[in-house]
């Protein structure tokens, strides 16, 4: 069976006079691309097809799982970009329509059954949703159950997003929307649908699906035209599509001030100086720290971050310093939350560069952590530790009750509204958000602190958190509850906690070797390198 787009691509590829084609005039590369389309290109095809007319999407839907089918859309999309033709117009091309019909015949005959398939989560993405309001019968009981299921999908999606599993996050958002599709609009259904659409947009952006992100944010705005988060998502999608003018307008409707299009050299230098002073960089009122005394390594690793003064704000600064010293190493903003002691955090960072074993590398990483902590705190964390704080020991049940009280306070409608306003004013920057939120959070924390016998200030909150962390180190229930409470503090599942989860770039052992070299400033195959593939006879 003949495919016109394939024939055209092969002709271009075989033209030896033009070696600038994307296959380097190598038909093997073309063949592999067309029949084994790699995941990044599969996702681009999925994004391209978002602009296809409904009838084309319906023809493609039953066979979208096959790489060769997706390749036709991928190739057409690239051609549209190259020619400067609107994608929607290119997807109506007569030759492409003929190819889609040929593919349909091939699929119906079963001849595509042995063809390579794409990522499984993409297979049903073109399936049509049922018509809104078509669910019959519609009762309060059915509505309640549907909302419960939709919230479960939303929750699973948020967890996946937090774990950098953006494909799963996207899938769960789509599943939630599919569940709600046939329900009547209005009330809690519309609110949940809007939240799922915004989450879908956020996950789509992480996957490079800018057109899908734009479509989802537009759908959310169709529910609530004044939804600032939806406008923010739309702005991000437009920026990813290089539609900068529209992106600035959308950002303005999100209640944010668009950044200036140009900056003077003086303004850039001022911004750099301001940022450095916020981070407590060496040379800005903070002494430059050198190396950690090896004799103090054990004591250093026993430190609890919050106990020595690393709060939510300085935790952001700490991560930025670590990222500066460990370029390209994926360091999450949640490092201090997930690994509350210095030793645990060091182990996690070593794990990131596949260097768990060996005192030498551990010492180097400890030194990096120590310098970062010195800079953000303004002093050596091993010194100035003597302070008169309340040392309270809680049981698991007591810790869970305290965290429940805090979470309930954070989930009050008034506090959620305050958190959203603070996030907007901070332009969704994590550090600025936390600085502004801290005094407002303390107002709802004070009654709980005083009831427990702590002073109603940041010192009291630090002492309480230290006591809770000690319980969390031994109890998974308390650890999970502590995480949920921190998420609630930052606006809940759809708040700043989720917005600012960092996207970690993929890395392999070759990346790890490079990162170990950066850490040791030496040859990654030198004496400090642990060859995990070696077999040593004893």
Characteristics of this structure?
538 residues, mainly alpha, Serine Threonine Protein Phosphatase 5, Tetratricopeptide repeat, 4 domains, 26 helices, 62% helix, globular, disordered C terminus, phosphopantetheine, Hsp70 protein binding, Polyketide synthase phosphopantetheine-binding domain-containing protein, phosphopantetheine binding
Structural class: mainly alpha
Report the major sheet: none
Number of domains: 4
Q: What is the helical fraction, as a range of percent?
A: 55-70%
Evaluate the radius of gyration.
27 Å
Q: Residue ranges: pLDDT <50 for 5 or more in a row?
A: 262-287, 501-514, 521-538
**DSSP helix count?**
26
Mean pLDDT: 81
Order of helices and strands: HHHHHHHHHHHHHHHHHHHHHHHHHH
**Beta fraction of the residues?**
under 5%
Number of strands: 0
Shape: globular
Measure the end-to-end span.
62 Å
Question: What this model shows, in words?
Answer:
By secondary structure, this protein is mostly helical. The chain folds into 4 domains: 4-122, no CATH class; 150-253, Tetratricopeptide repeat domain (Serine Threonine Protein Phosphatase 5, Tetratricopeptide repeat, Alpha Horseshoe), CATH 1.25.40; 268-377, no CATH class; 396-499, no CATH class. 62% of the residues lie in helices and 0% in strands. The chain has 26 helices and no strands. The protein has helices at 4-14, 27-35, 39-48, 54-60, 67-83, 87-90, 94-108, 140-162, 166-180, 187-206, 210-223, 228-240, 244-253, 265-279, 297-301, 312-325, 335-338, 342-352, 359-377, 396-410, 413-425, 430-451, 458-472, 476-489, 496-499, 509-520. The protein is globular. It starts with a helix and ends in an 18-residue tail after the last helix.
């Amino acid at each position: 069976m003949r495919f016109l787009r394939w024939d055209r691509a092969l002709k271009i590829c075989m033209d030896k006079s033009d070696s600038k084609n994307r296959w380097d005039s190598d038909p093997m590369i073309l063949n592999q691309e067309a029949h084994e389309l790699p995941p990044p290109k599969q996702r681009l095809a999925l994004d391209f097809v978002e602009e296809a007319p409904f009838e084309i999407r319906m023809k493609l839907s039953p066979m979208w799982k096959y790489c060769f089918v997706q390749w036709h859309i991928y190739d057409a999309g690239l051609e549209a970009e190259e020619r400067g033709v609107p994608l929607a117009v290119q997807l109506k091309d007569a030759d492409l329509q003929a190819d889609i019909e040929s593919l349909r015949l091939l699929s119906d005959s079963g001849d595509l059954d042995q063809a390579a398939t794409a990522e499984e989560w993409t297979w049903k993405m073109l399936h049509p949703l049922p018509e809104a309001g078509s669910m019959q019968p519609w009762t309060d009981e059915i509505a309640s159950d549907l909302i419960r299921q939709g919230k479960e999908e939303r929750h699973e999606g948020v967890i996946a997003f937090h774990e950098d599993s953006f494909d799963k996050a996207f899938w769960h958002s789509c599943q939630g929307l599919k569940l709600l599709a046939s329900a009547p609009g209005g009330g809690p259904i519309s609110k949940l649908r809007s939240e799922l659409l915004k989450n879908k947009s956020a996950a789509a952006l992480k996957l490079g699906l800018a057109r899908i992100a734009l479509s989802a944010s537009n759908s959310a705005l169709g529910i609530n035209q004044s939804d600032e988060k939806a406008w923010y998502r739309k702005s991000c999608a437009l920026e990813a599509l290089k539609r900068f003018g529209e992106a600035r307008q959308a950002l303005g409707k999100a209640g944010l001030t668009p950044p200036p299009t140009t900056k003077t050299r003086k303004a850039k230098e001022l911004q750099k100086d301001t940022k450095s002073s916020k981070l407590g960089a060496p040379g800005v009122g903070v002494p430059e720290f050198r190396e950690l005394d090896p004799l103090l390594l054990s004591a250093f690793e026993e430190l609890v971050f919050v106990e020595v003064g690393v709060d939510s704000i300085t935790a952001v600064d700490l991560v930025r310093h670590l990222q500066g010293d460990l370029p390209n190493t994926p360091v999450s903003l949640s490092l201090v939350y997930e690994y509350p002691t210095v030793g645990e955090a060091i182990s996690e960072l070593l794990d990131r560069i596949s260097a768990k074993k060996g005192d030498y590398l551990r010492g180097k990483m400890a030194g990096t952590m120590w310098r970062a902590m010195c800079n953000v705190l303004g002093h050596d964390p091993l010194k100035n530790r003597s302070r008169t704080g309340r040392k309270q020991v809680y049981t698991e049940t007591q810790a869970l009750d305290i965290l429940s009280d805090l979470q309930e306070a954070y989930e009050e409608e008034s506090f959620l509204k305050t958190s959203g306003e603070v996030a907007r004013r901070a332009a969704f920057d994590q550090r600025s958000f936390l600085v502004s939120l801290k005094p407002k959070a303390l107002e709802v924390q004070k009654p709980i602190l005083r009831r427990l016998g702590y002073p109603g200030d940041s010192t009291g909150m630090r002492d309480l958190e230290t006591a809770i962390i000690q319980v969390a180190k031994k109890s998974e229930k308390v650890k999970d509850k502590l995480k949920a409470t921190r998420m609630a503090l930052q606006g809940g599942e759809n708040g700043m906690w989720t917005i600012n989860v960092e996207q970690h770039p993929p890395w392999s052992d070759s990346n790890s070797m490079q990162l170990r070299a950066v850490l040791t400033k030496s040859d990654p195959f030198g004496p400090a390198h642990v060859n995990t593939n070696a077999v040593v006879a004893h």
